[in-house]
Design brief:
Elements: H1 14-37, H2 46-55, E1 61-65, H3 69-75, E2 80-85, H4 88-100, E3 106-110, H5 126-129, H6 139-142, E4 153-158, H7 163-170, E5 174-183, H8 191-196, E6 202-206, E7 211-216
Length: 221
């Protein structure tokens, strides 16, 4: 089921604002309950989680920006996961969770913001062609996936910082038929990615609060 995102605006009358706030809270409740009961339930729209459960296979290799419940979710369903995090305290917390579960198939990488970061020469030229200027402090963070050969991953999840840069860097690193997961895809600042990936089959899932979109690399049979 696709429930369009209920957007709140500063000019909404008080009663409209309150009604929207209550509706969003009710629609968000199922995900909150799942996450409270299960630490392996990712913070994605519910139907996208079901889609991923059907897609993921034990032999797959994956990559994610933005860690947490999703890290455990992906690690339990794949052979290998590379996860990148930029917040030190959160990195320490998730590291502990992974150790408690004995999830040794995760390469968990800490990439804090750095003012002296420089973009990798392997970055796709399309970022410049789109006149998109990434924040330099997140260059090392979003370029991490460029350390791996093309067609390395069956899935890539983009749910952290610098999402356009991360997603663009990921395209050549996906295997034919691999999937790119973009959370909070309803945000207008990510619309340029939809233009770039016009030829990619996609499935968008929304629960009234936010949207998760899964793009599929068109090389699959």
């Amino acid at each position: 089921m696709y429930i369009p995102v209920i957007r709140q605006y500063p000019k909404d009358p008080p009663l409209v604002h309150a009604a929207k706030w209550l509706a969003r809270g009710a629609l968000n409740l199922p995900v909150r309950l799942h996450m409270a009961m299960r630490q392996d339930y990712p913070w994605f729209v519910q139907d996208s989680v079901k889609w991923l459960q059907n897609f993921l296979r034990p032999h797959m290799h994956g990559f994610e920006w933005g860690s947490g419940h999703s890290t455990i979710f992906f690690a339990q369903r794949s052979a290998r996961l590379i996860s990148v995090e930029h917040k030190r305290k959160w990195f320490q917390k998730v590291s502990q969770k992974l150790a408690e579960r004995g999830l040794c198939n995760v390469a968990y990488l800490f990439r804090p913001p750095r003012a002296d970061s420089r973009p990798s020469q392997l970055r796709p030229t399309m970022l410049e062609e789109l006149n998109f200027k990434p924040k330099p402090e997140f260059a090392a963070y979003c370029d991490t996936i460029l350390d791996y050969p093309p067609e390395s991953f069956d899935f890539v999840s983009v749910d952290g910082r610098a999402r356009i840069e991360c997603a663009m860097n990921a395209l050549d690193r996906l295997k034919p038929g691999g999937v790119l997961i973009l959370d909070n895809s309803e945000r207008s600042k990510y619309k340029s990615l939809f233009v770039v990936l016009t030829a990619w089959p996609k499935a968008s899932f929304a629960n009234g609060v936010w949207e998760t979109t899964i793009f599929r690399e068109p090389g699959h049979s």
